[in-house]
Amino acid sequence: METPKPPHTASEMTLISKSVAIKGEVLCDEDLYIDGQVEGTIDPKGYRLTIGPNGRVKANITARAVVVQGRLEGNIQASDRVDLKQSATVVGDIVTQRISIDEGVTLKGSVNVRPEGAGQERLGGYDSSSFH
């Protein structure tokens, strides 16, 4: 009798090590850890992306959560949260629900923190439903 496969666990992760360099589009259906170099677009399809301390990324990122310890040149769109750790350098714009920025982070760009369910139409504009 065959044992059923266990459901997705937090330990399932794709690793791009520091000896790897990728140019192009990176897609995956699990958490992604980058400690190498990536240039292009990154979409871990609703999972967590971590850029490790040796990671050098030039890409626009769409993920559920993003942790940056290395260097990122590009925009972040995170549906849940962004954590910028002490050694992080980010050049680009960030849109997320929650953000954590450690002391010592270098950040050049805009940060847009919006509550869950807020639509793009409310960003930088008036909500006409509040006027009666």
Task: Give the beta-strand count.
Answer: 13
* Number of helical stretches of at least 4 residues: 0
Unreliable stretches (pLDDT < 50, length at least 5) are: 1-9, 120-132
Structural class: mainly beta
Kindly state the percentage of residues in helix.
Answer: under 10%
Strand content: over 45%
Q: Please write the string of helix (H) and strand (E) elements.
A: EEEEEEEEEEEEE
Distance between the termini: 67 Å
How many strands, what sense, and barrel or not for the largest sheet? 13 strands, parallel
Task: Please compute the radius of gyration using only Cα atoms.
Answer: 17 Å
How many domain modules? 1
Q: What's the mean pLDDT score?
A: 85
What does the overall shape look like? globular
Write up what this structure looks like.
- The protein contains no helices and 13 strands.
- The protein has one domain.
- Strands 1, 2, 3, 4, 5, 6, 7, 8, 9, 10, 11, 12 and 13 form a 13-stranded parallel beta sheet that branches.
- The protein has 132 residues and is mostly beta strands.
